[in-house]
Structure formats: structure tokens, C-alpha cells
Recover the amino acids of this structure.
């Protein structure tokens, strides 16, 4: 696989992580660079590991994963999104519990935004593509997009004050729905 193709794949895969990063930046109070780095590291790391896992699994799990990957992503994003919306209605930004910096939430978001990368890894195995160059590009691009997304979310999130966590929750649910709709339209 050539560099340009791998780069386009990486940008496509990074878009969900970017959107979730922006939503995360919206709701983190007193954002520090280490917070943005933590989110970017998790998203970029999972986005790089999932194609490897898919590649290793290859043909054996293709039908299983292809059939449910979109539903798993929808479920995970909806759980986090509903929790964020519920918390925003209870107490606003002052008492967030769906904190994207907490390990369980960060893990769920990382998995949810990288499910598509698992299917890409399976495709790499079917096409007998060397996995290492695309994986490094996918992880690097996702890391960069996620880092920038958190910063943008922090900078522009204060415009919306108490509605930010609710907006973030709706964004997460919308991403999950988008994943399912794309799957239903394309059948992949």
C-alpha cells in the first residue's frame, strides 16, 4: 500500500476520534496539555492497535465483526452520550461524572471510535497488505487530530457554557448513528 492511500485511510478513520475529541475538550474544565495528550494517546493508540488485531484475526472473524461492529460502536457511544446528557441536566458543568479523562470513559470512547479500524485491519489481511506502515500512519494521524480536537473543543466550548456537556453527548450519539447509517447504506 502506498503512503497516500494509507494517509487517506488514516484521515477517514480519524474523523470520529476528532469529533469525540472536540466534544471532550468542550467538557474538560481547566484543560492542560497533558489532558489533550492523554486523550490523543488513547485514541491514536487504539486506532493503531485495532487494525493490527483485525489483521491478526483475518478471515476467521470477518463475518462476525462486519455484522456487528457498527452496533457495538453505537452502543458504546450512546451509553457515554446519554450519561453526559443526563449529567448536564442534573448539575451542569460543575459536577460532571462522564469525564473523558477517567479511565473507564476514556477506554470506552477509544474502543468506540476505533471499531472501524478493526474492520480495516481485516481488509488489510484479505488484501495481504503489509500492516506496519499503514498502522503507524493511522495512529499518528489520529493522535494529531485528537490532540487538535481537544484544544479546539476547549477554546470554543466556553461559548456554550452549561450546554456543552449536553452537546457533547448528542455529538457522541450522532457519531454512533452515523456509523450505523453508513453501514446500512454501504452494506459494509
Amino acid at each position: 500500500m502506498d503512503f497516500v492511500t494509507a494517509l487517506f485511510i488514516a484521515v477517514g478513520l480519524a474523523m470520529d476520534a476528532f469529533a469525540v475529541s472536540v466534544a471532550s475538550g468542550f467538557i474538560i474544565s481547566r484543560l492542560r496539555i497533558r489532558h489533550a495528550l492523554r486523550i490523543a494517546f488513547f485514541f491514536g493508540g487504539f486506532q493503531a492497535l485495532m487494525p493490527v488485531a483485525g489483521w491478526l484475526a483475518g478471515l476467521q472473524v470477518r463475518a462476525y465483526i462486519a455484522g456487528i461492529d457498527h452496533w457495538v460502536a453505537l452502543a458504546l457511544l450512546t451509553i457515554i452520550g446519554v450519561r453526559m446528557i443526563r449529567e448536564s441536566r442534573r448539575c451542569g458543568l460543575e459536577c460532571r461524572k462522564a469525564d473523558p479523562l477517567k479511565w473507564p470513559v476514556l477506554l470506552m470512547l477509544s474502543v468506540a471510535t476505533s471499531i472501524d479500524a478493526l474492520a480495516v485491519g481485516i481488509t488489510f489481511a484479505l488484501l495481504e497488505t503489509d500492516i506496519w506502515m499503514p498502522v503507524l500512519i493511522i495512529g499518528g494521524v489520529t493522535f494529531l487530530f485528537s490532540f487538535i480536537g481537544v484544544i479546539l473543543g476547549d477554546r470554543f466550548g466556553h461559548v456554550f457554557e452549561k450546554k456543552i456537556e449536553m452537546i457533547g453527548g448528542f455529538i457522541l450519539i450522532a457519531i454512533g448513528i452515523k456509523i450505523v447509517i453508513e453501514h446500512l447504506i454501504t452494506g459494509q
